[in-house]
Amino acid sequence: MRTGIWLVGARGSVATTTVVGAAALRAGLVPATGCVSALEAFDGVPLPGFDELVFGGHDVVGTGLVKRAEQLAEAGVVPRGLPGVLTAELDAADAEIRPAPPGTEEGGDGTPDQASAAGAIVADLTGFRERLGLDRVVVVNVSSTQPPAVPHPAHASAAALREALARGERPLPVSSLYAYAALRAGCAFVDFTPSTGARLPALDELAREQGLPYAGSDGKTGETLVKSVLAPMFARRALRVRSWSGTNLLGGGDGATLADPERVVSKNASKGLVLEAELGHAVEGGVHIHHVPDLGEWKTAWDHVTFEGFLGARMTLQFTWQGCDSSLAAPLVLDLARFMALAHRAGVAGPVPELGFFFKDPVGSAEHDLAAQYASLAAWARSVGAPA
């Protein structure tokens, strides 16, 4: 089942690590550490193999994948020497990366209109599928986080959206423009960012009309992953959490992006969902994100929790999470592409809530307990992958 993975932000750190990792897995150079889909629970599920994944994408930068991989090796994200071993594979993927079409840049001047930009994306996606003889294509957005969408009448229905685009309007944030084009091109869509993506009524309707799956949003890779385990622990032990404060120190492009007060709104909203959902009540505190350029590709999260036990005894929990976001995210991108190819093959249309295991703000699901999400994912994969 040859599956194309079209990466929006194809030369970014997450995308580059994903392509390097897939090539290393194909060559048998590394184990599938971090790949959920490679666990024993999914043995026998007809997922595309790592050797059946083909990469392409869009980006606004011209630095090639080999150079980007070498930079990540210098930063300790991928093993030194690995980019040199995989040069041919990286060059092949790089040859399928196209410049982002005019009109898809954030804050573009409106020339051309979004209908033309969507048409250009569709042409690139269909050309990628046909040129390489792919069975299906999964579009994965791993670009920079965008501000929340400004409500627009065209968001209400697929018909209203088509009419607005036909009039030359620009009703969609860039992430949603990519979702729209992906669906028009017959591709599944995943938003790994907290951007709006396919989470508009018009795009949900379009996905169902086209018989295509979509999933998102905001990959759960670090601090929130820990919260989704610890919050249910407090709830099930009847311990009342009174405050939960998190401080996040981020380097690299992600940190620079989230230094923008408009863009950080989307990230903070998704990071805050798990606590109230699992604890059953609001808590004091919140998440504070700081850009520290010196950290480069690495991030640190420090959380301070106050909780109350029997007879009102006050206690605290603190934890520190330090990790490389690209290394944590890349295997999940591979997992999501494999599971979405399965969903597409099975005729799933609309959101895939069972993939909520991978996200801070799971579309189509209010479940945030990691154990419950994993059980749902495993049961779903076995069900849709069963012979007819």
Structure, explained:
The chain has 2 domains: 3-218 and 327-384, Rossmann fold (3-Layer(aba) Sandwich), CATH 3.40.50.720; 223-323, Dihydrodipicolinate Reductase, domain 2 (2-Layer Sandwich), CATH 3.30.360. It has 14 helices and 11 strands. The protein has helices at 13-26, 65-74, 82-85, 87-94, 114-131, 158-166, 174-184, 201-210, 223-236, 252-258, 264-271, 273-279, 325-345, 370-384; strands at 3-8, 53-59, 97-99, 136-141, 188-191, 213-216, 240-250, 284-291, 298-308, 314-324, 350-351. The protein has a 7-stranded parallel sheet with strand order 3-2-1-4-5-6-11, sandwiched between helices. A 4-stranded mixed sheet has the order 8-7-9-10. The longest helix is centred in the C-terminal third of the chain and has 21 residues, at 325-345.
Name the descriptors.
388 residues; alpha/beta; Rossmann fold; Dihydrodipicolinate Reductase, domain 2; 2 domains; seven-stranded parallel sheet; four-stranded mixed sheet; 14 helices; 11 strands; 19% strand; EC 5.5.1.4
CATH topology term of the largest domain: Rossmann fold
Poorly predicted ranges: none
Beta percentage is 15-25%
Rounded radius of gyration (Å): 21 Å
Organism: Streptomyces lividans 1326
Protein name: Inositol-1-phosphate synthase
GO molecular function: inositol-3-phosphate synthase activity
EC number: 5.5.1.4
Summarize the structure.
The protein is α/β, with parallel strands linked by helices and 388 residues long. 40% of the residues lie in helices and 19% in strands.
List the helices and strands and how they pair.
Layout (H helix, E strand, L loop, with lengths): L2 E6 L4 H14 L26 E7 L5 H10 L7 H4 L1 H8 L2 E3 L14 H18 L4 E6 L16 H9 L7 H11 L3 E4 L9 H10 L2 E4 L6 H14 L3 E11 L1 H7 L5 H8 L1 H7 L4 E8 L6 E11 L5 E11 H21 L4 E2 L18 H15 L4
Parallel strand pairs: 1-2, 1-4, 2-3, 4-5, 5-6, 6-11, 7-8
Antiparallel strand pairs: 7-9, 9-10
Helix pairs in contact: 1-2, 1-13, 5-7, 6-8, 7-8, 9-12
